[in-house]
Design goal:
Structural class: mainly alpha
Largest sheet: none
Distance between the termini: 86 Å
Radius of gyration: 33 Å
CATH superfamily of the domain at 109-312: MetI-like
Shape: elongated
CATH architecture of the domain at 109-312: Orthogonal Bundle
Order of helices and strands: HHHHHHHHHHHHH
CATH class of the domain at 109-312: Mainly Alpha
Number of helices: 13
Strand content: under 5%
Helix content: 55-70%
CATH topology of the domain at 109-312: MetI-like fold
Number of strands: 0
């Protein structure tokens, strides 16, 4: 009896039960997909304006140590050496009244920087309080305060400064700082108001108010740490703006009197210096003033870039 050989066919697999189909799906890793990593050149490095920081610190330290660098009275006159060019005896020369410009640079820089810092402290304090009240107040109060701010910004700041200075009468470093601080707060106040309106509904702010936290406690403990980075570059720019405004007022004859030395009051004699060819009376104070303003601008721009980068990473 012959046996026929048939090719063996595999038996069909049984269908999986419905419970297995309805369960969670599992996947098996069969390979590795290598993702391209961003190159080091593609990453945005933090750019720190080291040159501006070093120059600004050097100028500030020189002004703070003015009594050691150039001891004596910066207003002391040497009537035998008026408008003398730079020499070993007078490294930066003398002005029309025989005053040593080297001593005037450092003592006058201390006055200019003090005016800028004091004006910025005043303007920042007003802006923080004004912006926080506007941001936490009802809608009608917020609208009223913002409309008042826009009206204030629409008036030229120099006109307001001259008006307030005329009201205060005699000008000195403190009065000019107060006037400049009282006219340079609206821009910071608008930023503070925007930040506070975003933070006022946060859980920790509501919890602090429910626990009896007062306005200043909530401002200092919860609001200020969050919006400080957003306004820091504006604070630096306000210092720069106050120094530039003081120099402008002194150049126009509306700033400090001649017996108070500042970089602006030194530049107020530019017209007579040009007529007599005394270039050092304009160039040297101008270099110190422009260098300080440019350094502050670079530092402020770096702080602004850092704040914008932090907002994009949120």
């Amino acid at each position: 009896m012959s046996h026929e050989h048939h090719s063996a066919e595999p038996a069909p697999r049984p269908a999986p039960p419905m419970e297995a189909l309805s369960g969670p799906m599992r996947f098996q890793v069969v390979g590795r997909l290598d993702m391209e990593k961003p190159s080091a050149a593609g990453k945005r490095r933090k750019r720190v304006p080291w040159l501006s920081l070093v120059l600004l610190c050097a100028i500030a330290m020189g002004c703070l140590l003015a009594n050691f660098i150039a001891p004596g009275n910066a207003n002391a006159m040497d009537l035998t050496a008026p408008a003398r060019a730079p020499s070993p005896q007078y490294p930066f020369g003398t002005d029309m009244m025989g005053r040593n410009i080297f001593a005037m640079i450092w003592h006058g820089g201390r006055v200019s920087l003090s005016i800028g810092l004091l004006a910025t402290v005043i303007s920042t304090g007003i802006a923080v309080l004004y912006g926080t009240v506007s941001g936490t107040g009802p809608v009608w109060l917020d609208t009223l305060m913002m409309r008042a701010t826009e009206i204030f910004l629409s008036v030229p700041s120099l006109l307001i400064v001259v008006f307030l200075q005329a009201i205060m009468g005699s000008s000195n470093a403190v009065s000019i700082a107060i006037v400049l601080g009282a006219t340079s707060w609206p821009t910071i106040a608008k930023v503070v108001r925007t930040e506070v309106r975003q933070l006022r509904s946060s859980e920790y702010v509501i919890a602090s108010k429910c626990m009896g936290g007062r306005f200043m406690h909530v401002l200092l403990q919860h609001f200020a740490p969050n919006f400080l980075s957003s306004i820091m570059f504006m604070v630096v720019m306000n210092v720069r703006g106050a120094i530039a405004s003081e120099s402008t007022l002194s150049f126009m004859g509306l700033g400090l009197p001649l017996d108070i030395v500042s970089w602006g009051s030194m530049l107020s004699n530019a017209d007579r210096a040009l007529l007599t060819g005394a270039w050092w009376m304009i160039l040297i104070p101008g270099i110190f003033l422009v260098t300080t303003l440019v350094c502050m601008t670079n530092i402020g721009n770096a702080l602004r870039r850092e704040a914008n980068r932090g907002e994009r990473n949120l």
